[in-house]
Amino acid sequence: MADNDLLQFVIPHKHRPGTDLMTKLMLQDSRIMNLILKTLIGRNAEDKYISASCEWIDGRHADVLYIPKDSATEALPPVIVEIQNTVDKTFIRRIIKYCGHVIDKYHVEPIALTICVHEVRKPISDLLLETPKAHYLKRLPSDCWAQEHFLMSKATISDFLSTPLSEMVALGYVLTKQEASLLNISRVALEHEIRDEERTVEVLFNVCENNQDQYKRIIEAIEEDGNDSKRARIYANDGLIYNETCIRKYTKQLFNSSMPEPLALSPTVRASGSSKPTHKSPLRIIDPDPRKTDMEWVKEFVEEYRTTKKRMNWKTCFDEGRNAGYLGTYSNPQSLKNTFNKLNPKH
Description:
The protein is α/β, with parallel strands linked by helices and 347 residues long. It contains eleven helices and six strands. It has a six-stranded mixed β-sheet with strand order 1-2-3-4-6-5, with helices on both faces. Helix 10 (314-323) packs across helix 11 (333-343).
């Protein structure tokens, strides 16, 4: 995506600044990860970490956890990053537990970074110390549970907002201000998410269109075939198989399925008002059997009946004809017999 496309770049609601998913996606971007690691550990940490699962068996989970691609060491320890609205004693107790889980799993004390969005409460701000890592960071005591615990907030970066802006200060400013300037930073990190979401919508529309067309075919088959339900049943069965295949294909991502890929939608998707499909459907269309006239049906019945019976039973003919969707204009077997004999005197 080119920079001049930014004005047309739309972030879905769940990905907008200030949402947990948006923040986590951005912090998992390799460029943001390297920026944080370079600041907290040094250039020797760049490109040596990956984002890892940070949910533990007790249900607790940190925002983001970076771990070395190789084994964690004192020189390259795990790094926990937390975006917190208000930093108070309750939060500090929680991050201590997070770090305890990391120590249990990786056997190395982690480095923790807290980015405070709103407020650092006074009992905590009174404990803040300077750190040689960066003037815009503060340090909180973390004896026995973390190598270091750094904090960045609106207050810590306020004196460093003049240009040229440090990349880390810019990141802190964007996260603490929660503004739309996240676009330029998050654009690449989100592109695959946007594409996946758009593709999901396209698939959904195509599946709905195919099902709509199939329902219309079933209704048409019932209307055209009368009491002969064969074609309607085939359509219904095809629809069931289609939906079962879609469920398997798209929930389990079995893209080697024999089901055809969804067709591209036109720029403006609108419901079809016609009974005929407006797009190529993967579901088959069955041509109805040519509809016989009443007398054609009666003639076939009479000829077949008389191969086994000597005397014609017009009541049986009338009843079976009605059941098959014919003879609706005849009031009784006698009127049917009279009409047939008049049109077929040789019988």
